[in-house]
Amino acid sequence: MAAQLAIYKKGETDPTVVGDPTGVAITGLEAGTVVATGDYQVATQDSESKENTSSKVDVPGWTVLKATEPAPTNVQSTPTEDGANVSADTGK
Questions:
Q1: CA-to-CA distance for 38 and 14, rounded, in angstroms?
Q2: Is residue 88 within 8 Å of residue 72, measured between CB atoms?
């Protein structure tokens, strides 16, 4: 019997997502979303039969991070009579 982690939304009986024995990712949430402790619960279940599920344990709360833009690359400056013109690749 191989175990895997299963994530449940609070009050639901079917897992939202299943992972491996050491981790599972909750994805698809909007940036800035505040998830309270217990909004999600984690349990261990048999990876083959999906049975013998353990007791559910509350997942500690978190706030979904906001995506950051990548740092510019290939930054160049060209001197002018009163300063410089700066150019860069932004990855977009």
A1: 16
A2: yes
Residue 48 is encoded by which pair of tokens?
Answer: 């083959």
Which residue(s) pair with 4 in the sheet? 45
Which residues lie below 8 Å from residue 49, measured CB to CB, with a gap of 6+? none
Question: Which residues on adjacent β-strands are paired with residue 83?
Answer: 80
Query: What are the pLDDT digits (tens) for 27-65?
Result: 999 999 999 999 999 999 987 777 778 999 999 999 999
Question: What is the torsion angle, in degrees rounded to the nearest 10, for the CA atoms of residue 48, residue 17, residue 57 and residue 1?
Answer: 10
What is the reported pLDDT for 28? Answer: 95
